[in-house]
């Protein structure tokens, strides 16, 4: 559980440090986001999840990414990093390939990927524990769908 809390806090801290840096430093961090179908937009696949446009945007992503990351790293610790990183990369790649041509930032895609994983694995593993976790996640975040 300590590792899960540490990783969740680390991700949230990185998000907030990026946001606060964007507030005080000159320039616009959003330009490091994903710009679809451009070579310069590829770097956004790694950086965009940690960049947020305003306080409302980062606040709406903070709670969800903390809880979903916590559950992922607590319950599925042996595959958690793979799932988290793959979620970030797949979301970024799909945005880069399919989204409209403007900068895309934020953690929402990773949130939806983790939500999908946590819901699906509970159904496919056929264990009471994972099914209960899926139901809990659905009750907390099912409205996102």
Question: Averaging pLDDT over every residue, what do you get?
Answer: 89
Q: Strand portion, in percent?
A: under 5%
- The total of beta strands comes to 0
Shape, per Cα inertia axes: globular
Please identify the structural class as seen in this structure: mainly alpha
Q: Whole-Å distance between the termini?
A: 28 Å
Major sheet size, sense and barrel closure: none
Instruction: Give start-end ranges of low-pLDDT stretches.
Output: none
The H-and-E topology, N to C, reads as HHHHHH
Percent range of helical residues: 55-70%
Question: With helices defined by DSSP (H or I, 4 residues minimum), what is the helix count?
Answer: 6
Over the alpha carbons, how many angstroms does the gyration radius reach?
16 Å
Explain the overall architecture:
With 145 residues, the chain is mainly α. It contains six helices and no strands. Helix 3 packs antiparallel against helix 6 and helix 4 packs across helix 5. It is globular, with a radius of gyration of 16 Å. The two termini are 28 Å apart. The model has no long low-confidence stretch (mean pLDDT 89).
Keywords:
145 residues, mainly alpha, 6 helices, globular
Write the SSE topology.
Elements: H1 2-24, H2 44-47, H3 55-75, H4 80-98, H5 108-125, H6 128-141
Helix pairs in contact: 1-3, 3-4, 3-5, 3-6, 4-5, 5-6
């Amino acid at each position: 559980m300590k590792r899960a809390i540490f990783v969740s806090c680390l991700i949230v801290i990185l998000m907030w440090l990026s946001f606060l840096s964007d507030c005080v430093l000159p320039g616009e961090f959003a330009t490091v986001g994903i710009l679809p179908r451009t070579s310069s937009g590829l770097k956004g696949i790694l950086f965009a999840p940690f960049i947020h446009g305003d306080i409302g945007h980062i606040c709406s992503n903070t709670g969800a990414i903390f809880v979903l990351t916590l559950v992922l790293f607590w319950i599925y610790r042996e595959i958690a990093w793979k799932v988290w990183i793959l979620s970030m990369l797949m979301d970024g790649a799909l945005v880069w390939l399919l989204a409209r041509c403007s900068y895309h930032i934020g953690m929402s895609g990773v949130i939806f990927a983790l939500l999908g994983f946590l819901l699906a694995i509970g159904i496919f593993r056929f264990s009471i524990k994972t099914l209960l976790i899926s139901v809990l996640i659905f009750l907390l975040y099912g409205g996102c769908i």
